[in-house]
Write a structure and sequence with these properties.
Blueprint: H1 12-26, H2 29-33, H3 38-59, H4 63-78, H5 82-89, H6 91-99, E1 136-145, E2 154-159, E3 179-183, E4 189-195, E5 200-201, H7 207-215, E6 220-221, E7 224-230, E8 237-242, E9 266-267, E10 273-275, E11 279-281
Parallel strand pairs: 1-10, 1-11
Antiparallel strand pairs: 1-4, 2-3, 2-7, 5-6, 7-8, 9-10
The protein binds benzoic acid (BEZ) and fe (iii) ion.
Benzoic acid binds near residues 109, 111 and 221.
């Protein structure tokens, strides 16, 4: 474990640039859609444009508003905030549609702060600083298939720290802090030791923050832990788990909370919390 003393300041521009780099490195977006027929592109692009035209006509959008939009869109790119914008306001619907056939666990959005290939946890404990603040959390559960067969799968876990910052997206935090891969045994059992993360606001000093302020919204996400759960022959489950009583479970800016994803933590005598949250995966068809 390491200790850091952070004197640097987290900015939307730095976090946005990291998220944009990450996306371009990890995903092959053009490769995945290169064979999409023109009829589908035509249908989707036309409908999106038509819904914008309808909004302009309905609300008699002015040239001043049109130019403000143009300036803002340019700024979103310059801030590197396209991953943030899309994952806050669009991804939850894409995720719903992509997983509506599933019989196993509900998932939710990945968001912009996933980093692949997190190192294996040592002693079932996520890497953290010696002075990491936050309530210790222990999680013992299982991974099974929808028919109850235990799965020797793995759980990639990543979450914010007690200040709401993610390693690799905010400065002064060790590279793999609060990120690790956990492996289940042959019975599908796994054990995780970490800390309970805090609620956080998405960056408010960039263009997404400008939209939020201009519209009179808030920027909060409830406290959550992100997971990717995988096992051979099964669909990857991407989810976030939430804590009961968090006021932002009801008004998450990213609209990603589902009732099935809210934990039932049990307070322990030593001040820690224990959770049991099992994963049921759908076989690949
Ligand atoms: C997150 O879960 O970390 C997240 C999701 C969408 C936008 C920003 C952050
Ligand atoms: Fe998050």
């Amino acid at each position: 474990m390491t200790t850091t003393h952070d004197t640097q300041v987290a900015t939307a521009a730095a976090s946005g640039a990291n998220a944009t780099d990450r996306f371009q490195t990890d995903k092959s977006p053009y490769e995945a859609v290169k064979d999409v027929p023109p009829e589908r592109v035509n249908e989707l692009a036309r409908e999106v444009l038509e819904s914008i035209h309808n909004t302009i006509r309905t609300h008699k959008v002015t040239y001043a508003e049109y130019n403000a939009l143009k300036a803002w869109l340019i700024q979103v790119g310059q801030d590197g905030e396209w991953p943030l914008f899309l994952d806050v306001w669009i991804e939850h619907v894409v995720e719903d549609v992509a997983t509506e056939h599933r019989k196993g666990n509900k998932g939710t959005i990945e968001g912009p702060y996933y980093v692949p290939n997190a190192p294996d946890a040592v002693d079932n404990t996520i890497p953290m600083r010696d002075d990491e603040s936050g309530t210790p959390l222990t999680w013992k559960s299982t991974i099974t298939s929808v028919d109850g067969t235990p799965l020797q799968g793995k759980v990639e876990l990543w979450h914010a720290d007690n200040e709401g910052f993610y390693s690799q997206f905010a400065p002064g935090i060790p590279e793999w802090n609060l990120r690790a891969t956990f492996h289940a045994d042959e019975q599908g059992n796994f054990e995780i030791h970490t800390i309970q993360p805090a609620p956080y606001q998405i960056p408010t000093d960039g263009s997404c923050g400008k939209l939020i302020a201009a519209a009179g919204w808030h920027a909060w996400r409830p406290a959550h832990m992100h997971v990717k759960v995988s096992a051979p022959g099964h669909e990857l489950l991407t989810a976030q788990l939430y804590f009961p009583g968090d006021p932002h479970n009801e008004d998450d800016i990213a609209d990603a909370v589902k009732p099935e994803l809210v934990l039932d933590p049990k307070q322990q005598d030593d001040g820690s919390v224990a959770i049991n949250y099992n994963f049921v995966l759908d076989p690949q068809s």
